[in-house]
Amino acid sequence: HSKQNGKNQFSCYKPYYQTEFNRRFNIQNEIKNIIKEETFRLFYQPIYSTQTETIVGFEALIRWPEMDEMFTPDEFIPVAEECGLISELGKWIISTAVQQVALWRENFKLSLTIAVNISPVQLQDKNLLPHLIDTVKKNGVPSDSITLEITETALFKDSEKITETLRQLSQHGFKIALDDFGMGYSSIAHLIEYPIDIVKLDRSMQSFVDDGCKRYKVLESLAYMLNKLDLTIVAEGIETESQSSLCKQLNLDYKQGFLLSRPLPVDQIDAMLASPSLS
Ligand code: C2E
Ligand code: MG
Ligand code: MG
Ligand code: MG
């Protein structure tokens, strides 16, 4: 009855935090099972060269298994981080994605790259580097075909330790991308302080494109600065033709977004790579 009487003060018999707690607890248990059953899936979103309009690589994006209740990565990744499951899950993500790109490189004779999202917790795990080294060796792919996408939240933790970790990853040839740049805490200091190779412009910045005035000038100047710093620039969230064509004008190296392709399962990427229009 309580649910029907929205305005009744007794209707709120379950405090928010408790339902939130239960929800998280349930997701947590499900994640454990799904890891055990190995039924998480990776989708791959193509990344295109702005110059040639061809696929240069992919970003691996995790997907909840197909079941009644589906969670998005934004919902379950934070839970996996909090309950200490992200390192194990992250390990699986790296192995699977690297193995997949090795297959595509071999089957289609293309020097494709793979970008993997690395959570801040994973970046602090000392097993990350050995696992990456082991994985590229096992699959026979060059480490510079692997991009590690990190967000700025990872850079606030313990800056000296993070610098050292990133430096080691870099020394081994792995590419470091700063994800979602232009959102929230984006700081130019990060671009100077850390060994970053690639900057991914957050998709919220795409709204700057059609703006025409002040915000467009910010985007234009930002692109100019990032180019000056010899950073590789990826435009995320390309949804319109005007956004897509502007990438070339602003000298952005790569582009990614629903207009070009959504994240897709392996078989659909296979079909895409097999299509002759690519080569
Ligand atoms: P992200 O790394 O910034 O990934 C890009 C997100 O934008 C993806 O959402 C992708 O599906 C979506 N996207 C791509 N193009 C467009 C577009 O044109 N328009 C719009 N509106 N969206 C677009 P997704 O897959 O739901 O992932 C959300 C976030 O969850 C990711 O943001 C990343 O932070 C995290 N995530 C996803 N997969 C993984 C993973 O394997 N490991 C970790 N640690 N985090 C992951
Ligand atoms: Mg990403
Ligand atoms: Mg992003
Ligand atoms: Mg994001």
Automatic annotation (TrEMBL):
Annotated EAL domain residues: 24-277
Protein name: EAL domain-containing protein
Shown part of the complete sequence: 290 to 568 of 568
